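Hey team,

Filing this mostly as a record. A colleague (T.K.) asked me to run one chain through the structure pipeline before their review meeting, and I want the input and output archived in the tracker in case anyone asks later how it was produced. No errors, nothing strange. Just documentation.

Input sequence:
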Amino acid sequence: MFDLPQGTDPRHAPRTRKQRKIPRSGTPAVFKALAGLLWIFLFLKFSAWYNTELVLSSHYMNYRLLRRIWILAMLGFTTRMKYYGVWHLTEGACILSGLGYKGIDPQTGRARWNRLENVNPWGIETAQNTRAYLESWNKNTNNWLRNYMYLRVTPKGKRPGFRATLATFVTSAFWHGFYPGYYLSFLLAAFLQTVAKNFRRHVRPFFLTSDGQRPTKHKIYYDVASYLTTQLAFCFTTAPFVLLTLSASLLVWSRVYFYAVIGTAASMAFFASPGKSWLIRQQNARQKGSKWMQQQEQEQQAASPGLKLEHPILGGGLPSDPGKELDDAVREIKEEVEIRKKKGVSVSVPRGADMKAAVGRKIRREL
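Output structure:
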């Protein structure tokens, strides 16, 4: 971590002082602290306009439905600003002490100070899906929950499913405390994440080219719809987290007609119905009729005469979720390294081209 990456010009390396092994941290710590103070200032201003008293008051019902949803969304944003401010201040303190140092970026040659970064406000406010939203919030806790709950409750050799998701969110709710609002938020979030996975896996491919590599001209409509859906769903889901009590949470949910609960239940019902199979058949037909698929079949026939690709999406073709396939492959490689280390074998996690080759071999075995 303290060495310069290969290819980095020492003349362009960040400056250090005397025997100090890491670059000076005063400037990035100050910028992080100033950002934290700005978030807290904005929280104090916005909390005068958007607060729990407003959504619980009878005056709230004088607004039309869209205005009530907007106020609910702004209440969530205002609450998040408080966390943004506190986490930025604590991160600034970690950077100043050197704990936040994460080595030199091999691309830019600049020092990275995000080792203990806990929140990415831009990532949250622009998230188009639940995964991007949750990965940007309370990042260190989420990493712990992923490694020690989400992956551990999954049977060996199987992919994490709804049971792992539900167990992880319930654990997180228990971790926060015993207010009913925590459990309402995290239980609904578990269903919300499952629905989002299904949409991304079975609907998003229709807005990409048949090889899944490039967006179509209609992809912008999917992006806008997914952004609005994600943000509106989470502002509804996190309301009980702010209100805490069961009566207040159900009251506010009822004032916006439980729109996220109804939408989530309807989506779960659809993906449990023959509608999911219909989407898969449409994906297969679309991909099978494409020039890309025809080329793949020709190459496959040339390599293995008599072998036919029956299910291009679910079988021998493009994985249903390439990003997840890569993440799972990297995780499994790291787990294998840890197991070997425990057995006393001297081995390290592959990097660069070695990691790329290892991931390629593992994915090919799975396909």
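Quick notes for T.K.: Residues 307-320 have pLDDT under 50 and may be disordered. The radius of gyration is 24 Å.
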